[in-house]
Amino acid sequence: MTINDRPSMPGDLGRRRVLQLGAAGVASLLGGAGVLSACGSDAKTSGITSGGTAGGPGTATASSGGGSDKPFKVGFAYVGPISDNGWTFTHDEGRKAVEAAYPNVKTVYIESVPFGPEATQTFNKLAEENDFVIVCSEYADLLTPTVEKFPKKFFLEADGHTIGKYKNLNSYYVAHHKVAYIMGVAAGLTTKTGKLGYVGAFPTSTVFNDTNCFLMGARTVRPDCTMNVVMINSFFDPPKATQAASALVDGGADVLFDVMDDTSVLQVAEKRNIHSAIWNRDNRSFGPNAFISAIDLNWKQYYIDQVKAAMDGTIKGLDDITILDLGNGVDVAKWGDKVTPEAQKAGDAAKVKVQGGFEPYTGPIKDAGGTERVPAGKSLNASEVFRVDFSIEGVTGVK
User: Fold this and answer.
1) pLDDT in tens, 131-157
2) How does DSSP classify residue 339?
């Protein structure tokens, strides 16, 4: 199935529908560059681990928080390996911060939870053996049976779209679109061809917000910029990400951006002597000449606060998603060494503008089909941005 063949995905159902389609395979097209086909689940289940010590499948070990006969137990479920140097690594840093903050807390984690029936079994096991469960990526209908089965346990789901339905489940995410906009401004002054490329996982609001806002930022300094997108149906598949990035460069892109959990795209940019912005953290060492900046994630304080609320019994279900804003959970990484002073200055000015209250989604904004999505004089709020399900004019390859 190609993206053009997939059913339409309204609002909150987008991510959920994609996860349901994932096992069947979602493929993507890049103009004449060919099809990058999906190969089902890209992750393998590992055992519950703790404190960095691997356990076998179905086993559980716990790092000692010390100082209490009845430690508070927190279970983390990760979409990838903690060694990915990206998304999962940042969440595991948050887990470690919780242990450091609370000596009476014990944490366990499971890496690379696949998108399939095994996921629900994993979540059930975490709920049975822990007081609080944090799922560090959206698993949608694979998580909700566990939420229903354990009504007295509280759950957090990153980028989750099951919002306001359960009193024991909250969703959380970051205002990454603001960072994308800021990096896009610098990218617009970096590109020579005006062609930007993006490697994405699934056609969800994350991709739309990355690509839309990156392009919007670039167009403030270079109006003729365009953005081409390749989807690879995985957050962690270095060979596919490498293939996609190479295809984009072959198509003329000289600035890349991606949502991968690894550094493959940055490494392609380094090898091909172009530039790249990335997700998750400052990984410039993998592409020191290519690195523009990164969506720099920091979950530490959020996890510390949520575990405290869970321990105190004050945590409660919310009617909407929690979005961690610029400077509070997400930020722009320091500019790369090869970003020109002009581009850095423009990016810094864009950050000041955004911190002052500017919302990139300020109308009039039309989608790629010419339909007005944000009227003049209106700006989207955080909840509306989280639910964006369209590409703006100039973005191709995802809709």
Assistant:
1) 999 999 999 999 999 999 999 999 999
2) S
